[in-house]
Amino acid sequence: MLLSVKDLKIHYQSPRGTVQAVDGISFDVPEGKVVGVVGESGCGKTTAVRALTRVMPSVAKFAGGEVLFDGKDLLSLSESQMNALRWRDISYIPQSAMNALDPVWRVGDQIIEVLVKRGGMKKPAARTRAEELFAMVGLERKRLRDYPHQFSGGMRQRASIALALALNPRLVIADEPVTALDVIIQRQVLDTFLRLQRETGISVVMVTHDISVVAYVCDYVVVMYAGKVVEKGPVRDVLTQPSHAYTIGLYNAFPELSEDAARELSPIEGGPPLLLNPPTGCRFRARCPFALPVCAQEPPEVQVGAGHTAMCHRAHEAEALRAAARDPKIWQGVVTQ
Ligand SMILES: Nc1ncnc2c1ncn2[C@@H]1O[C@H](COP(=O)(O)OP(=O)(O)OP(=O)(O)O)[C@@H](O)[C@H]1O
């Protein structure tokens, strides 16, 4: 396994107390596969994946667990050992390309800088590699001379993909890489990214709040809710047989990216709980149309298929719940807290 996250806990110290943003999550990223981390805003996705690069705000604290990359625990490496892995083994594509690209530098120079400083390349070879990278992501070579503001949003995101792939890393972490783009451009950028992922065989962890993006690009999916993993498994199994009410709800709330499905969409009312004082038991229960008194107790991790688990007291009844969940009315007026 290229990456194994085991019982990872990350807390933020805030003036109001400790925010348990990531509360004991575990998942694996196999070599050459794309793993989606999905969930609503505030569920801890960004915190969880930024931990994989160890680039964290100073108020964030690792409160337990391991992040095994190729068998080594990244959390026990020194800063210089970790720095040696960044770009070369693990690279990061942030939510907005404006965070990856420096506005006052030409885009080409930024790529060359990474190739020279991080990859030890000579300038002429780096220039050739930058041209090759631009061609790979579908940008014209002459645009290497442009500044980021001269690019459209889609072009900037392509450039930040080129930057992330510059040194042939083994793992790319992409945080909502297409969210800021309109749907047609999203599709084009995702297609380019997927083609490159298949050609290079890199592993990818992709954060998204959009289950249709997961369906389109991922091999495996990890569904996060309120700092916990509530369901995970091979993408086809999780999307055709979602077994946690939250995953069922997410699926019902999103249109397909890949087809003009005429499915009736129904939002999950309310929002995730604050992670200062998370509720006991199943954290989704206040928004769940299927909650029972037992849901106030910690849910078990139920194996529902090969490599497919759901943290739900009712996971064994998932087929009936999926059928009931198709009625949009069942999602209305549920929120109890
Ligand atoms: N610097 C911080 N200080 C305190 N709390 C924080 C900080 N950053 C994030 N949080 C809290 O941690 C929790 C998880 O946030 P995180 O950004 O990881 O979620 P997310 O699922 O990635 O959301 P989004 O999609 O909006 O980025 C949230 O409750 C958030 O308010």
UniProtKB/TrEMBL annotation:
Cite a GO CC annotation: plasma membrane
A biological process term (GO) from this entry: transmembrane transport
Q: Which PROSITE patterns match?
A: ABC_TRANSPORTER_1 (PS00211), ABC_TRANSPORTER_2 (PS50893)
Q: How does it sit in the membrane?
A: Peripheral membrane protein
Q: Where is the ABC transporter domain?
A: 5-251
CDD domains to which the protein is assigned, alphabetical:
ABC_NikE_OppD_transporters (cd03257)
**Keywords attached to this entry:** ATP-binding, Cell membrane, Membrane, Nucleotide-binding, Plasmid, Transport
Compartmental location: Cell inner membrane
What InterPro entries does the record point to?
A: AAA+_ATPase, ABC_Ni/Peptide_Import, ABC_transporter-like_ATP-bd, ABC_transporter-like_CS, Oligopep_ABC_C, P-loop_NTPase
- A Pfam family (short name) is ABC_tran
Is Nucleotide-binding one of the keywords?
Answer: yes
Q: Which GO terms describe its molecular function?
A: ATP binding; ATP hydrolysis activity
The family this protein is said to belong to? Belongs to the ABC transporter superfamily.
NCBIfam families hit by this protein: oligo_HPY (TIGR01727)
Name of the featured protein: Oligopeptide/dipeptide ABC transporter, ATPase subunit
Q: Which organism is it from?
A: Ketogulonicigenium vulgare (strain WSH-001)
